[in-house]
Amino acid sequence: xxxxxxxxxxxxxxxxxxxxxxxxxxxxxxxxxxxxxxxxxxxxxxxxxxxxxxxxxxxxxxxxxxxxxxxxxxxxxxxxxxxxxxxxxxxxxxxxxxxxxxxxxxxxxxxxxxxxxxxxxxxxxxxxxxxxxxxxxxxxxxxxxxxxxxxxxxxxxxxxxxxxxxxxxxxxxxxxxxxxxxxxxxxxxxxxxxxxxxxxxxxxxxxxxxxxxxxxxxxxxxxxxxxxxxxxxxxxxx
Length: 238
What we know:
Blueprint: E1 15-19, H1 25-31, E2 36-41, E3 52-54, E4 67-70, H2 83-86, H3 104-122, E5 129-132, H4 138-141, E6 152-154, E7 167-172, H5 191-196, H6 208-212, H7 217-237
Parallel strand pairs: 1-2, 1-4, 2-3, 4-5
Antiparallel strand pairs: 5-7, 6-7
């Protein structure tokens, strides 16, 4: 199966790269709007497509993109929830415990790699950049570029996706997302609330990372409509 890009005769399509993604959800949202969109990840795509580049995003971010969206960069060691495993009180003091079977040296290596990928994407030669990443811990913030502002925090249920997942959006030359179809969250303690909390309740296992890195279709549609529209408007004005 091959994806097609049906572009409007009135405008030139944007060249869009969706990095660190395999699901094709955001890819399809941009393709249906006529953009020259591609997806990149170390893993293969979740479905057949000729628009997936399997490889390191750092090898392709210099290919002349108009818009870069990095949907799920390595964030386990950068987010606040991962802080407990990186050090004890203060900066880089030995933690009291580590995950079973792990050592501090390998986890620091993962931390360094996460910082390197995030920084490469943020400073990429692309005029507009959005990076989806949880709010960072203090160790990660200390290593970030000086022009990195605080993220816009959004939820999937702002865009019609019935789920809880606090999502940080680090934006360069792009507007904050506006809610498109805000749902009413269910009451805590109800079965529906537990269903919406599936990401946070995901049990340990080989597929947990996949569950937690899910791209929600409503949010992807907002990316394509709002950021794609903003970028296209700038390109036309130029």
